[in-house]
Amino acid sequence: MTAEAAIHELTRLDVIARVGMAARGIVYVIIGYLVFDSGRHADEGQTGAFAALAEVPMGWILLVLVAAGLFAYAVYRLATALFDADRNGTDAMGIINRIGHAGVALTYFVLSYLAAEIAMGLRHVGQESEDGTSRMLAEQLLDMPLGPILLGLVGIGFLVSLVLNVKNALLGKHMKHCAANAPGFVAQAGRFGMFTQAAIAGMIGWSMLRAAWFESSRQAVGMGGAIEGIRSQALLYNAIAFGLMLFGAFSLMQARWRIVPKIDVVEEAKDKAGAAKEKIDAVREEAKAG
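RESULT FIELD:
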């Protein structure tokens, strides 16, 4: 394989997506294990999983690979938002889904950056540091005009995510982009994992609404804080741990069976940029003619 062909393979969306899904799966399996184990980093969410990886021998190498994988997943979700690679369309629901994908992309770009920082020893991990990200967002929104309303909308967004995850799990829509020959256990793992994601989104969304209502950023929590908040409810706590592991397993299985277009993201981006430039030039020409 020539160097040019190798680069082309690395910029194909299906390759990027599978690497990203595998990395996401590894992170969620570790989070679920840590919650089950109830040991150190158990309630620190994604950053706790990064810290756990960093502590094993040569773990920084694994963490660098995970950071690269999460970056790949962010690129994949950005592509589904900008290029409509998931074929969501341009109707109202399609636009909402694509905006949601853009938000997911931003989240995973941040997670990739955090993983890289932890790998290089530039960041100390703790639940407070993870919840601090949510609280910093809440504080910045509260400082804006109509800040409580904006923060409330963020909370509502998480609650909408809860509803959509439950709906997709119940109707089997989480398998929409998986190959028809995927084993039945993939759907079942994904269904329980989606319910777990919905529960966590609900807890985070509720904390954002409380932060907006009381105009206090300290009410806002991230995944780690949400999990910590149910520690005393043993049945629910263990169900969440099991669900996180299943969601991770589902993500790993998606890396094998998800159907992703084999488009070159670099070429697609160039085409989109060229089309946008042509439209801008056309508008300028019309303005001059007018």
